[in-house]
Structures are given as C-alpha cells and as structure tokens.
Amino acid sequence: MGRLTGRRAVITGGANGIGRAIATAFAREGCDVFFTARADEDAARSVRAELREHGVRADYMLLDGADPDSATRLLDTTAETLGLADILVNNAGTATRTGFLDLTFEEYERVMAVNLRFPFFTTQAFAARLRAADTPGSVINISSISATKAISAMAHYQSSKAGLSMLTRSASYELAPFGIRVNTISPGLTATNANAVQWRDDPDLWRERGKDIPLGRTGNPEDLAGAAIFLASDESAWMTGGDIVVDGGEAAV
Ligand SMILES: NC(=O)c1ccc[n+]([C@@H]2O[C@H](COP(=O)([O-])OP(=O)(O)OC[C@H]3O[C@@H](n4cnc5c(N)ncnc54)[C@H](OP(=O)(O)O)[C@@H]3O)[C@@H](O)[C@H]2O)c1
Questions:
Q1: What is the reported pTM?
Q2: How far is the CA of 93 from the centre of ligand 1 (A)?
Q3: 242: DSSP letter
C-alpha cells in the first residue's frame, strides 16, 4: 500500500478489463488516476466511483483513440483535471479476427490507429510535458505475447503490437536523458471483453485452452496489475526499454 502515493497516472481504456484492473491497483497504492473510455460511460462512472473510494482523485473522459487529435486532447484534459501526470499506461487496444487475404484497408487503418498511432503520439505529448517541467516519469505500453508469436487471422493486430513493443525501445533510448522510462508489459490470454465470446459462451473450451498454458490457466485482468505497479514505481528505477511477459508461461514454450 502507498507505493504510488503522490503520483498521477493517465491510463487509456481504464473502464474495462486490464486497464480497469491497473487503475484500481494504482488507486489502492495512493495514485491519482485520469482514464479514458471509448463508449462505455456507465462502466467509466462506476470505475471513477470505485477509485475515489481509495481516497485519490479520479476522473475520466470519453475518447476514440482513432481520432487524429486524441493524444493532444487527452494530455490537455489530464493537465486541466489532475495537473502534470508522471505515469502513462498505453492500454487501449482493439482487435478483429480477419484473414490476411480478406483484410481491408479501413480495418487495417483503424487497428493501427488505436493500437500504435495513439500510444505513439500520447507518449510524445506526455514526455514533452514532463521534459518542460524537468520531471521524471514512467510509460507502460500494454503490448501482447502475440507481438512475437504468430496466430491466424490477426496479422494487423500483431503488426500493431510488434510496432508498440519497438516504440518502447526507441522511445526509451531517446527519453532516458530526461529520466522518462518506457517499458512494455506483454500479456498472454486474459479473460476480458476482448475475448468474452470465448470464456462466457464456452467456459469448457476456455478451461481446456488454459491447460495448454504451463501454469495451467488463462489470466485474469488482476494478474497484470503487479507488473504495472512495479514499472510505475521507483522499484524499477533502473529499468527502461524492457518487457515483462505475464502469460502463465505460454510464450516460453
Ligand atoms: N485480453 C487479452 O487476452 C490480451 C492479451 C494481450 C494483450 N491485450 C491487450 O490488453 C489491452 C487491454 O485489452 P483488454 O483485454 O483489457 O480488453 P478490453 O476489456 O476490451 O479493453 C480494451 C480497452 O480499450 C478501449 N478501446 C477500444 N477501442 C478503443 C478506441 N478506438 N479508442 C479508445 N479506447 C479504445 C476500450 O474502451 P471501451 O471499453 O470504452 O470500449 C477498453 O477500455 C489491449 O491493448 C489488448 O490488446 C489483451
């Protein structure tokens, strides 16, 4: 408790899934949180109320990461609401399952815009503010083990995540002189809205899928929170450009 007291985080996609679990864990550790939701305002309101129960400041804005000005609007609104944020979690992501030969230009563009362009320019806007204030900070990019391991019908998603993982390394190099660290968390298969059709509609198949994972189960959003607290806090002060794989061991085999 209290490992992030006095810190201010901006989290994209904080109303559901992994982003929500990270927002909750950060608030429990004393961190103020500003998060985005795309469409699910009911969930956003209830997450805001939950976060405030931990005695921290919390608020949200509705934002579509595919909009070209989304990064600027997010950082401007965060500054107006919380002041200078020193933790950024690029968590928002989207995916469709479409075979490589059937993928349209529009589908490719949307996934790339949300999963790669949005975090790219959000990181840039976040770092520019910190540098101007001569303040250190931490960026956490939520990538995926599928950035390095091919699966079918997700070439656009996997390319976006591979790009995000490389963004971590490029930005970490250029931002290190300003004390701004940039790291990746690569989750494995985790039960969220993104794959609800699998675990809600066919729990037996989902359990079977878990048996292929060395630790014997699929993940829950809360499984990702510990790595995020570590990367946000000074416990990881000498870590940048790195990747924490949280996947029950799937990528190792
Ligand atoms: N679940 C997995 O197995 C898994 C594995 C590896 C990596 N990941 C990554 O983990 C991250 C979180 O996903 P999740 O699994 O927690 O799924 P999720 O519950 O569906 O969360 C995705 C989040 O991204 C937001 N989002 C989606 N499209 C957006 C857009 N156009 N603009 C702004 N925000 C948008 C959603 O907002 P709304 O809820 O308001 O729509 C939601 O908060 C993603 O980057 C995903 O790629 C997930």
A1: 0.98
A2: 4
A3: -
